[in-house]
Design brief:
The complex is a heterodimer of chains A (313) and B (207). Chain A has helices at 2-32, 48-64, 78-86, 97-104, 113-128, 148-154, 174-178, 183-190, 203-211, 226-229, 253-258, 261-266, 275-286, 292-311; strands at residues 39-43, 68-72, 92-96, 130-132, 142-147, 170-173, 199-201, 217-221, 232-234, 247-252. Chain A has 313 residues and is an alpha/beta fold. A 5-stranded mixed beta sheet of chain A has the order 7-6-8-5-9. Chain A has a 3-stranded antiparallel beta sheet with strand order 3-10-4. In chain A, strand 1, helix 2 (48-64) and strand 2 (68-72) form a beta-alpha-beta unit. In chain A, helix 4 (97-104) crosses helix 5 (113-128). The termini of chain A are far apart. By secondary structure, chain B is mostly helical. Chain B has helices at residues 5-39, 41-56, 59-70, 74-98, 102-110, 115-145, 158-166, 170-198, 201-204. In chain B, helix 3 (59-70) crosses helix 4. The longest helix of chain B has 35 residues, at 5-39. The model of chain B has no long low-confidence stretch (mean pLDDT 90). Classes of the chains: A alpha/beta (313), B mainly alpha (207). The interface between A and B is large, with 41 and 36 residues.
């Protein structure tokens, strides 16, 4: 019996050895990536618009402050970005007011843009010590999309029309399947259901699937360049289910306190991009195959030039 | 499409770094653990089951679970890769040592070797092909799983794969997928070569 206890205790030596080895490796990583006070880390979710907005913000910060910007873009979805921001792994990332309201705060839908912004600003500051800077202008709402061909064939224009077509096959992103401002809430408000439970899939693969007619209805972002690419139409949200999704920089209060110049530096972006412009930027990268970094640098340049042009007498 | 070689090289280096560190630690821990389980037989079942259960956790879920503990970037990626590398190495070491002809061990003891000498000079060399098989399996698995590390900011070749999928751009996907497949083959080949070099001369003819 004693031998057995000793043998089990021996296992802990292996766990301890592994812990020590990892501690050592992590220490080396920390030394290598040592955070300088002059550094600001920008993150983004893993889709074109998120990455390009982060890159534009990075360029603007670099041009207008002496800070060095570390880019950690392409980080999974909302959950991963938000956790990274909370943990201080990143200092800011582009987020959408509607996502903050419904996916993070889990509050009910608010249709008024300004009210939604006010609510997330107050709640994020109080609960998470995070600040929403002024929105960039456009509204990248969630939407349901179908191919033009299929929608015309069935005469579907509005989301409520789906109630007459339970036979349609739907494919949604896993985030849309899970979020309150996604399928669960939509189904409840509109009172429709599909015969076959919608499949949840990765966003890029979902677009390929609808283009190849493997599914009929998909979730989409209204500013997505792929809507044009795959000849999709957005169904009218006739019951006003989706909240406004204004994009803005979400930043840690601590980073802003340390570098108050960030707010002024990013102010030329406020209200400067409308839906059409954002869709164009996405399309240039997703459809035109232009390099994301060069498009972002060009847009940043334009926004900064527009500003200095105006302030000159 | 134009391939950005500097970027590709950088991502490949990140990918190799992740895989090498994770498999390295897994070997340092896993081989002794396998030998230990071979000695303390009653522990083998439960410990191998536990290590096996880790293997069944989907990789993305495991990465997600580690974020609150370790944040984003290389740290959670390395820990996840290590956990996935563990099972093949521990199991193969345990099984390899268990399948050695008892008479060889008997003879070694008869020559007056201490237990540690029997293990290091007789048992492990005899079990080497099986142990190396485990290390090779772990390496190949890790090259694959490491592509997912891109989703938590750890870099690597997965960056191209996920950016390509997001942009529905096949060439970009392939720019990550082809090098990572080649990497798995090359590392496996290197380890096979190392394995041949490590087998003592007296045993080579039999293999």
């Amino acid at each position: 019996m004693m031998n057995r206890i000793r043998a089990v205790a021996g296992l802990f030596a292996f766990v301890a050895a592994a812990a020590i080895l990892f501690k050592g490796v992590f220490l080396l990583i920390d030394i290598r990536d040592r955070k300088s006070d002059r550094n600001i880390t920008i993150g983004s979710k893993a889709f074109t618009e998120g990455i390009v907005l982060a890159e534009i913000m990075a360029v603007v910060i670099e041009r207008r402050t002496g800070l060095t910007v570390v880019r950690r873009t392409n980080l999974g979805g909302t959950h991963i970005c938000f956790q990274a921001l909370r943990a201080g792994e990143i200092d800011l990332y582009p987020e959408y007011t509607g996502t903050g309201l419904m996916a993070i705060l889990e509050q009910p839908v608010v249709n008024d843009e300004r009210r939604a912004l006010r609510i997330v600003r107050e709640a994020f500051d109080k609960r998470y010590r995070m600040v929403w800077l002024d929105p960039l202008g456009f509204n990248n709402t969630y939407a349901l999309a179908m191919t033009e061909k299929k929608a015309r064939e069935l005469g579907i224009q509005r989301i409520s029309d789906l109630a007459h077509h339970p036979e349609l096959r739907a494919g949604f992103t896993s985030e849309f399947m899970a979020r309150k401002d996604g399928y669960p809430g939509l189904k409840q408000l509109y009172g429709f259901s599909f015969t076959a439970e919608p499949g949840s899939m990765e966003a890029g693969l979902m677009y390929s699937a609808v283009a190849e007619a493997k599914v009929d209805v998909v979730s989409a972002y209204s500013t997505d360049g792929r809507i044009t690419k795959f000849k999709l139409v957005l169904l009218d949200d006739d019951k006003h289910f989706f909240p406004p999704y204004q994009a803005a920089a979400l930043i840690r209060r601590q980073a802003l306190d340390r570098h108050p110049e960030l707010e002024t530096a990013l102010s030329p972006l406020a209200g400067k991009l409308d839906d059409e412009q954002m869709r164009n930027i996405n399309a240039r990268i997703d459809l035109g195959g232009e390099k994301l970094e060069s498009v972002a640098a060009e847009i940043a340049q334009q926004l900064l030039a527009a500003r200095s042009g105006r302030t000159k007498p | 499409m134009r391939v950005d070689f500097a970027l590709l090289l950088h991502a490949t280096a990140e990918h190799i770094e992740l895989t090498a560190i994770a498999v390295g630690i897994a070997v340092v821990i896993g081989v002794p653990l396998g030998a230990y389980l071979n000695r303390e037989r009653f522990l083998a079942g439960p410990v191998l089951a536990l290590v096996g259960v880790i293997q069944t956790v989907p990789s993305l879920a495991l990465l997600g679970l580690l974020i609150p503990l370790l944040g984003i970037g290389e740290k959670p990626a390395l820990l996840a890769l290590f956990l996935y590398a563990l099972l093949p190495i521990v199991r193969n070491t345990h099984d390899g040592l268990g399948s050695i002809d008892p008479s060889a061990l008997e003879a070694a003891r008869g020559m007056g070797m201490r237990p540690s000498q029997v293990l290091l000079r007789i048992a492990l060399p005899l079990a080497l092909p099986v142990v190396m098989g485990g290390i090779r399996t772990s390496t190949v698995i890790n090259v694959g799983v490491a592509t997912l590390a891109a989703l938590i900011g750890a870099g690597g070749l997965g960056q191209f794969i996920f950016r390509g999928i997001a942009m529905v751009d096949m060439p970009t996907v392939l720019m990550g997928a082809i090098p990572s497949a080649l990497l798995a083959l090359v590392l496996d080949g290197l380890l096979a070569w190392a394995e041949r070099r490590m087998i003592p001369a007296g045993l080579r003819a039999e293999n």
